[in-house]
Amino acid sequence: MEADLSHISEARAAVPNTPVLANTGVRIETVRATLAIADGVIVGTGLKHDGYTWNPVDPDRVRRFMDEVRAAREQSEE
């Protein structure tokens, strides 16, 4: 299930001097938007072959995910 970004925003507002992490539903397609609000993400299934929990990690998914993370970081530095 995708993280509700409004909940992450609420958490950030409630604890402004505390790092806020998204811990669910972060995928290649959602990581940029999530990192625009959260300080970091916890990801597992999104990096597995076919997005299935019990499958091994898919190196291609990891590369694409990290490409999106780097792009999100570059955007935040602008």
Compact summary:
With 78 residues, the chain is mainly alpha-helical.
Topology readout:
Layout lengths: L4 H10 L6 E2 L8 H5 L4 E2 L17 H19 L1
Parallel strand pairs: 1-2
Task: Report on the architecture of this protein.
This protein has 78 residues and is mostly helical. The protein has helices at residues 5-14, 31-35, 59-77; strands at residues 21-22, 40-41. The protein is built from three helices and two strands. A two-stranded parallel ribbon has the order 1-2. Helix 2 (31-35) links the parallel strand 1 and strand 2 (40-41). It starts with a helix and ends with a helix.
Tell me the total number of β-strands: 2
- Number of folding domains? 1
The overall pLDDT average reads 93
Class by alpha and beta content: mainly alpha
Helical content class: 40-55%
Which residue ranges are poorly predicted, with pLDDT under 50 across at least 5 consecutive positions?
none
Strand content is: 5-15%
What pattern of helices and strands is seen along the backbone?
A: HEHEH
Radius of gyration: 13 Å
* Structural shape: globular
* Tally of individual helices: 3
Q: Which tags fit this structure?
A:
single chain, 78 residues, mainly alpha, two-stranded parallel ribbon, 3 helices, 2 strands, 44% helix, globular
